[in-house]
Design goal:
By secondary structure, the protein is of the alpha/beta class. The chain is built from nine helices and six strands, in the order αβββααβααβααβαα. It has one domain: Metal-dependent hydrolases (TIM Barrel). Helix content is about 45%, strand content about 10%. The longest helix is centred in the first third of the chain and has 20 residues.
Length: about 200
């Protein structure tokens, strides 16, 4: 969310050199959920203590995904990929549904003239959703698309499950078919980040 911290937005051509290089080099970009500032900021500063900000940081990822899907970025860079780091995934189905609804009704008088609906851009693999602990997101994985979900441990930060990461991840995958679990825990990241097995 560069515009939230005083930089040009994704709706400008300011970032085109970065996008061009990333696409040409086949390097995905990672957008950290905190890079757009604090989600609960008010004119007086933070509205309450940091736990509120930590809880709401997924809203930054939701905002970033919406900005990107309703901007020219993925239309102009058809193989560009961006991961939404530490933003979770449970919110994705609603934002995709709402983005399409708004795109259908409001795009022309808001200077959004792209012919591809936001959910279709998402389905093309431009955005990778990353989760640390997200039971709702895992339940909604088919609405998101299993191929668009990647586990991240967040080690060594306090949001991680370390030193019990494997145990907690195994428990969260207990009722998920092995093929889907393998994709979300390893294979999707290998494809997204172009990191093949040796």
């Amino acid at each position: 969310l560069p515009d939230r911290i005083g930089l040009p937005s994704f709706h400008t051509d300011h970032w085109n050199p970065v996008f061009e290089f990333a696409q040409e080099a086949n390097i995905p970009l990672s957008l950290h959920f905190g890079s757009g500032g604090s989600p609960q900021a008010s004119p007086e500063g933070m509205s309450t203590n940091m736990t509120v900000g930590i809880t709401l940081f997924a809203l930054n990822s939701a905002s970033a995904m919406t900005e990107l899907l309703l901007s020219p970025v993925f239309h102009n860079y058809p193989t560009l990929r961006m991961a939404l780091s530490e933003g979770g995934i449970g919110w994705m189905p609603y934002v995709l549904e709402r983005s399409d609804y708004v795109w259908e009704r409001h795009r022309f008088y808001n200077d959004v003239h792209q012919s591809v609906r936001p959910s279709e851009l998402f389905a093309r693999g431009h955005i990778g959703g990353c989760f640390i602990s997200d039971e709702v997101g895992l339940e909604m994985r088919h609405k998101i698309g299993v191929d668009h979900i990647m586990f991240e441990s967040d080690y060594p930060h306090s949001d991680s499950q370390w030193p019990h990461t494997r145990k907690v991840l195994t428990e969260s995958m207990a009722n998920i078919p092995d093929a889907e679990a393998r994709k979300m825990c390893e294979d999707n990241a290998r494809v997204f980040y172009n990191f093949p097995r040796n």
